[in-house]
Amino acid sequence: MSDPRRTVRGVLSATVLAARPDFTVTAVTCRDEHPRWSPAEARADHRMVLVRRGRFRRRAAGADADVDRTLAYVGVPGEEEQFAHPAGGDTCTSLSLTPALWRTLAGDPTRAPAAPSVYVDARLDLAHRRLLATATGGDIDYALTEELLALLATAIRRAVPGPLPPSTRTPARDRALVDRARQAIAAGHPAADGLLPLAAALGVSPYRLSRCFSRELGLPLTRYRNRVRIGRALDRLEQGESSLGALAADLGFADQAHLTRTMRAYLGRTPTALRRLLAPHPADGSRPEGEFTAPPPPPP
User: Fold this and answer.
1) Is the dihedral of CA 89, 91, 95, 96 positive or negative?
2) Which of 2, 17, 22, 273 could form a disulfide with 269 if both were Cys (CB 3.0 to 4.6 A apart)?
């Protein structure tokens, strides 16, 4: 798989699954067989590439590697690469990071990986699949970002030499950090629109913020934020909100369908059904249909 930014008709195609200033997730498909090495090319970003189907060969820093679903690779800016496809096409996921995001996970952005090839065990394979599934859900700024950070943190620990940036966490600091994040989310602070800007506003790495939530509250930051947004949606529906599109936009959902999926996942009902359920009871004492239907457990 060569540079995903370059698309060759009938040979190489790239589809951006998610993009933010600090990262891009791209699906790349090569449809041809090229047993010879490609011309050397250099990228300007930090990246990790995982294979979804097929295999190919990569040459960098004088070393060759067979890359398939069990072996990913990590690349750094300025590194010259060559690729060969002796076994036909392949489909990959390319994760491109800015130096700033790389630094929060690996430290010095100029430090090259000691092991550019990373073994993809079953857990890392599952993390890759979860990332791709989350990319279709519409919540890039929290759900997908948390999955991306977890995957990268695992892989980078295997690839980067020496100790990672030292942790300054203590139980008291973690609790204080979680409290500050909760306050920002509750107040609707602009930085709380995404995990990365929220972490920057709090002066910590996004991975640490995500991990602190899981340790302190027993649930991911994404689920906590959704809990707050669902509470606000219920308030509006209880007050008779008529425009679900406006409600979705005001609460930061990608669109009305994203709002509906989220509320159904957490409460087992659509916003329209919840609006009926929360309407004032008729004078005859009857209750809205479905009031006693138990909701499903919250999503993991």
Assistant:
1) positive
2) 273
pTM given for the model? 0.82
pLDDT digits (tens, 9 = 90+) for 50-83: 999 999 999 988 888 899 999 999 988 988 999 9
12-120, what's its fold?
A: Jelly Rolls (2.60.120)
Both tokens assigned to 287? 């209750």
Q: Per-residue pLDDT tens for 143-176?
A: 999 999 999 988 888 777 655 555 566 788 889 9
> In a 10 Å sphere around its CB, with 0-12 CB exposed, 13-18 middle and 19+ buried, how is residue 218 labelled?
exposed
Strand-pair category, 90-97 with 63-67: unpaired
